[in-house]
From TrEMBL:
Transmembrane segments: 7-27, 33-55, 62-83, 113-131, 138-159
Binding, substrate: H392
SUPFAM superfamilies the UniProt entry points to: Alkaline phosphatase-like
Residue ranges annotated for the Sulfatase N-terminal domain, each copy included: 227-519
Cell location: Cell membrane
Keywords from the named record: Cell membrane, Manganese, Membrane, Metal-binding, Transmembrane, Transmembrane helix
Protein name (Swiss-Prot/TrEMBL): Sulfatase
Similarity remark: Belongs to the LTA synthase family.
Primary localisation category: membrane
Protein's pathway: Cell wall biogenesis; lipoteichoic acid biosynthesis
Amino acid sequence: MKKTDVMPYLLIFLFLFIKVSVFRVLIFDAKSFWHIVLIEFPTWALLLSIVLLVTKKKMYRVVWIFNFFVSAIFFITTLYMRYYTTIPSYYDLQQLTQTSSVSNTITMLSNPWDFLFFLDAVLLFSLAGHWKNPVKPVAMKYVAVSMAAISSITIVYALQQPIIDVSYFAKENGFLQSQVVQLYNRSTDTAHASSSKLSARELEQLKGNKYVEISEHESFGVAEGRHLFIIQVESLQNFVIKRTLNDQEITPHLNKLLSESAYFSNVFQQVGAGTTSDAEWIINTGLYPQGMIPTTNSLSGKRVSSLARVLKEKGYGSATYHADDVTFWNRDVLYPVLGYEEVFSIEEIPNVKNVGFGPADKVLFDFAASELPRQLNTYDQIYANIVTLTSHTPFEIPADMQYLNLPAEYEEMYIGNYLQSIRYADEEIGAFIQKLKNQGIYDESLIAIIGDHSGMHGSLVTEEDQRLLSNFLGHDYSLKDQYAVPLLFTGGNLFEKTEMTRLGGQTDVMPTLLALLGIDHDFPMMGHNLFEYKKNLVGMRYYLPGGSYIQSEQFYKAPGAKLPEVLYDLKTMEKRSKNGEAKKHIHDTETLMNYADTLLKEYTE
């Protein structure tokens, strides 16, 4: 065999090795040569070997497609990691149909250097002349066998390890191995294998509380018989509440509403890969989401004991409003599971004054308000779930909808756009509240307003944005600032101005609402009544590495793809040394999340 016959093969394996090495350094900041050689590279090399061995014709074209496909995976993973701070799984292929709605975000996340992943696709063209009649070296079979042996060992080893955090697991066991393990776990229904069960009493003890029967809660029934409105606000973070910029309030209408509200300022998001749709699931079920896969992608269609269904038994009619395609994030599956009697999406809500992904929030709220008279004549009480859309990344608001006069340094900055979009959302929430007052509904209602998830996160927040955020906040932008969302309960003559700093999560919304409405229940939920319990333990399995927790005094970030574990004081967000108490909370969080998976499994495929 001529030396030139072997050279193309050596070059394509070399290109692949370089690309895998760059990917590993970029994603995991891991530079161990032997880890790349023995764990990360062999599985990719095995795939390439198989491609080469089975290809009979047009080998050059097949090799080029293979390398382009690998480059695309690395490119997409890089962008995904920048935005979500976790690596995607094969589950996320189910989300490719959503990419048209986030194309602007993808453009913002990428930079010219990322396209170097496709450099070998260009270089391979230079080898085209050597592949007209390629001669496969006999050694290719030995390469394939060797790579198969090494890959088998690493995969078998990986299968024995628990996946607490996908990114950290991939760092330790290999990117492809992590995908194989997730696929295996899902196919055998052992992704979060658990038969853990906790009674309501045990659950509260785990959180550090003494259990109290729901009907004995001091807040039980204070809003009994009232209409219920939940306003879930896109990307609303807690740090904007009561803040000003050049003497301009970011949320003047919410700030005004605080004078007659119970405001919980220490509540955290708990969404998974489904982001906004996951928030809808959590808030309306009191259950955790799936995590690495949007919960809506896994729902079996089985009816859940949701807020809408519980309230229906009390004579409520339910409706949900979201000015987007109902198939987005599989809400056409989610809403029947949650049991809404009326669903309003872009098919019913006027498709006018489009901003970003759909009609502006003003159109949404005006439409919801217009439906109230009919609903009031149809049902004894109404439950309306309103999900806003305009303040979605990348936060680009038309000039005629901008209410802030931004300082020059904030113009065209991500933080500036974010504050502008939140100010707009606040304006429309204020207008809707006024409509309720004008119609005499406000004094007969319980209204909950909550953010769905963070907006200022990932690599879109530049160093300059970080500097501006620090100036705006008066301190460095912390994980607490990033993941805390405001939650306030209001309504005519219900609450006096109250701010409560006790820890909460989105799973606490439904049980708190049921207690306020005077509705007892016998089905399990992961959250509890925030008015009753002072202690809490909140788990997160997305955005933060798996195993992270937020406890009433501590904020623990588990080790991830790049960074080591860190323990913070929740109040000050100063670093603390890991102690026995933290180890107990880590164990308790694992128990908590196992129980959460047990409850969720009943409703997923």
